[in-house]
Amino acid sequence: MSGILQAIRESQGQMNRKEQELAQYVLEHPHEAVQSSITELADRSGTSTATVSRFCRNLMFKGLSDFRMKLGAELAVTPTHSTYQDIVAGNSLHSIVQAIEMNHIRSISDTTRQLDLQAVQQAVGALRAAKRIDLYGVATSGIVALDFQQKLVRIGIMAHYWPDSHMQITSASSLEEGDVAVAISYSGDTVETYDALLCAKERGAVTLSLTKFGSNRISQAADIRLFASSLEEGMRRGDMASRIAQLHVVDILFTALVSEDFDDYVPQLEQSFQQVKKYRKEKGR
Amino acid sequence: MSGILQAIRESQGQMNRKEQELAQYVLEHPHEAVQSSITELADRSGTSTATVSRFCRNLMFKGLSDFRMKLGAELAVTPTHSTYQDIVAGNSLHSIVQAIEMNHIRSISDTTRQLDLQAVQQAVGALRAAKRIDLYGVATSGIVALDFQQKLVRIGIMAHYWPDSHMQITSASSLEEGDVAVAISYSGDTVETYDALLCAKERGAVTLSLTKFGSNRISQAADIRLFASSLEEGMRRGDMASRIAQLHVVDILFTALVSEDFDDYVPQLEQSFQQVKKYRKEKGR
DNA sequence: ATATTTAAGAAAATATTTTTCATATTCATA
DNA sequence: TATGAATATGAAAAATATTTTCTTAAATAT
Questions:
Q1: pLDDT tens per residue, range A80-121
Q2: Phi and psi dihedrals of B147, rounded to 5?
Q3: Ranges for the SIS domain (chains A, B) (predicted)?
Q4: At how many degrees (to 10) do helices B139-154 and B239-260 cross?
Q5: CB contact under 8 A, A247 and B244
Q6: Which residue of A has its CA nearest to B76?
Q7: What CATH number belongs to A3-84?
Q8: Which fold has domain A117-270?
Q9: Which residues, 6+ apart, have CB-to-CB distance to A185 below 8 Å?
Q10: Burial, A27: exposed, middle or buried (Cβ in 10 Å; 0-12, 13-18, 19+)?
C-alpha cells in the first residue's frame, strides 16, 4: 500500500466522522479519487466539497490538487516494488531479506514522490542563513538528528544536537532570530521534541519539522514542514523504514545545501576529511 | 525520456508557433509544468491560457488537468538508470533529489544482491547466543552502531556502544568468551574500530564486521564478515549511501534475530514501546 | 439545563480552466 | 501587389472547480 494511503489509514481514527467516510472512499477507490473533481469526490463519498477541501488541508497537503498530484504520483510507481511486506515469525532468511529490501526501497521512493520541493528549497534557504542550527529528536529520530548534526558540522556549520531532552530545551532557549530549529519525530507527537521546537519558536528561530506524513502537532507548529513516508503503524517494527526515509530527506537537504554553496562547502568537506585522516596517521599507524 | 515528453518532442514540428514555445518550456521544465496553474504556465512559457488549454486538447488530452495527471504519473516512475549519480555544483533541486534517490535505492539493492546469507545466519546465531554485545564504530559508522544498539536494547539484549573510542576498547577488554563484538566501518580501515575489535578478539569474543565490500583490515580480522555496498569515491560524499546500506544490513540482522525468537522478542518490543508511551503520558500531556 | 466548542454543509468568494470572439497574421490567388 | 480566405492568438467572457465564510446542528463540558 502506498505511503499516502497508509498515512490516511493511520490517521483515519483521529478524523471527524465525515472525513473518515471520505478517507474510506479514498482508501477503497484511490484511482477514482485521483481523477475526480471535488464535486464528484464529495458526491461519491457522501460528503461535501468543503469537507473534501478540509480533508486535504488536514492531511497537510496544500489543497486538493496537491493531494491529487502526490497520490497520483505514488499510485503510478511501478507495482514491482509496490506492496510493503510485513515481517512475521519464522520467516526464511531469504524472505526477510527480500521484504526488508522492498520496504526500504519503497519508503525511499514514496518519500521522494511526495516531497515538496518548495519546502525543501525554503528549508535550505533557512539553513544557509542560520548562524546556528539546533536539532531535536529522541530515540530513533535522535539518531537521524545526530546524523544531520555530523554532516552540518563537517561543512563548518554550528549545529547542535543534545541526546538529553532537557538540554535540547536549554539549547533552544538560547536561539536567536534567524537561527533554525529542526524537530525530527516519526510520529510528530513526541512531547520532548515538541516542547523544544515550541521553545525555539518563541525565541524567533525558523522552525522546521521532519515527521511522518499527515497531520501532527510538531508539523503543525513548524514554519517549514517536511515529511518522510513510511508504512507501519505505531513505530514498533516500523522505525526501520521510517528512519531510512528520514535519513533520505536529511541527505537531500544536506546535498542541496552543499550544492548551493559548492565552492565554500566542498573544500570544507574535503578539509575535514583530510584533517581526520592526517590526525589519525600521526597517531602512528 | 517519458512517453509523453517524447510525443511532445515528436509533434513539436507540426505545432503552431506559440504551441512550439510552450512545448519547449514543457520539455525543459516538465516538473514545473505539472505543478503550475494554467496562468503560471502561460506566463512562464510566454503564451496565453487559451494556448495552453488548446495545446493540451491538441495532444489528445481531455484538458490541462488530464495532461498534468498523466505527465505527473509518468515523471513519478523512478528512472531506472543503473549508474550511481554524482552530485555537483549548481544542480537543480530536482536533479539532486533524483540522484540521491537513485543512489540510495541502488546501494540498497546492491547490498542485498551481494549479501552472504550464510554469514547473516551465522551472525544471527552468534548474536542470539551472546550474553553481551559490543558495538564499535566512529563518525558515520558510529551512528549505525548506535542505531543497532538501540534496537538490541529494545528487545532486552545487553548491547553497548560508546561514542568515545577509548571506552570502546575499555568495554572490549571486559568481554568474555561467546560474547559478540561488532565492528562497523565503511572503509574497514578505521584505526580505533580495528583496535577495539582486536581487543575483543583477544578476549575470546566472536567478532563480526560490517564494512564496504572488498578486502580490508577489519573484515580480515573478523570471524564473520558482512559487507555493505556503496559508491566508491572515498567516503566524502559517499557516506550518505553507505550509511543507508549499512543500516539496511543492520535491519536485516535485527529482523532475522527477532524472527527466530519471535515469541520472546516481539512482546519485549511491544512492552518497551508501551512503557515509553506510558511514562510519557504520566508526565502529564 | 445551559454555555461552549466542534463539525459540517450551504452559499459566497476565489481561483482556475475552457470557450468565444475579435483581431492580427499568413498564405494563396488574381 | 492587392484581396480574400484560412489560421493563429490573446483578451475577455463563460463555465468549472476550489476554498473560505457563515450558519446551523450536534456534541461536550460546566
A1: 445 566 666 667 898 889 889 988 998 999 899 889 999 999
A2: -60, -45
A3: 123-263
A4: 20
A5: yes
A6: A73
A7: 1.10.10.10
A8: Rossmann fold (3.40.50)
A9: A137, A138, A141, A193, A194, A209, A210, A211, A216, A218
A10: middle
